[in-house]
Model the fold of this input.
Amino acid sequence: MAAKPSVDPKWSANDDPNNIIEPTASLKENGIESGGVWGRENLNWMFGALSKWVDWIRSYALDKDNNLSDVASATLAFNNLKQNATAAITGVVRISDSTTSNSSTVAATSNSVRLTKTVADAASNAANSANNNANLRALKTNNLSDLANPSTAFSNIKQAATASTSGVVKISNSTTTTSSDTAASSTAVKSAKDVADSAKSQSQVLTDGILTFKADWNGSYYNVQDRLGNASSFIALYTTGNGTVTVDHLFGTLDYDVQLTAVSSSSRVCTYSSKTANDFEIYVRDPTGNLVSQEDVIITIYKG
Done:
């Protein structure tokens, strides 16, 4: 593009009628025909008119190099050109600090975004706090299974049992404790029952004056079985040799007798000797008089 001219084409700006005469309509339409000559007045009019248009353009037309800085009113110029933005058209919008507007043609300011974020942050913090609080709460539908430490929780609420109040106790295997805040375990009860049964058995033997039990050969030695088929603490058996058994008892007197019967074979001969106040010996022999094992013996002890 050619450079912008620097010469001002100013011409006959005084409108002197002696020097300026407007051409006729025919001359203006057809121009100077071949061989024709315009007078100076007509030329002054034409160049003067062109000079006025140059002056007008210079005064009112925009210079693109000024990038619209030379418009008479930038506001009016913008309003005349602007297009409102829509979902389909890029354009201009108004801005607003409102955080509650539902307008589709108004844009939020940075301040309104900040305000909204402040509200959102507060809501998020509240939600996190509520969530943390919820995590610290036990739900009734979980029946206390969601406690942080059930053992500690139980220790915090437990109440000791008394003679008038239901509560918790420790359990003990002891059969000799005198504690009033300890409950006996099943083991302790069984141990006490065994002692009681033994005492009952002893009491019955001493009262009735008779006890029948079996010396049971288990393949290596003899076990005692009383009338109920249970081990008896009133009687103890010791296998002292082939076909020889020592019977310990708690009669504490020599005033008793013994009756023996071999269980599996009538050909076995059972005898006893060495009777003391607390024991005697049993001998099991075959028909030839040899001591033999592997024979169960029914033993009856009775007062004489």
Remarks:
- The domain at 209-303 is CATH 2.60.40 (Immunoglobulin-like).
- Helices lie at 25-30, 40-60, 74-81, 110-135, 150-157, 186-208.
- The radius of gyration is 66 Å.
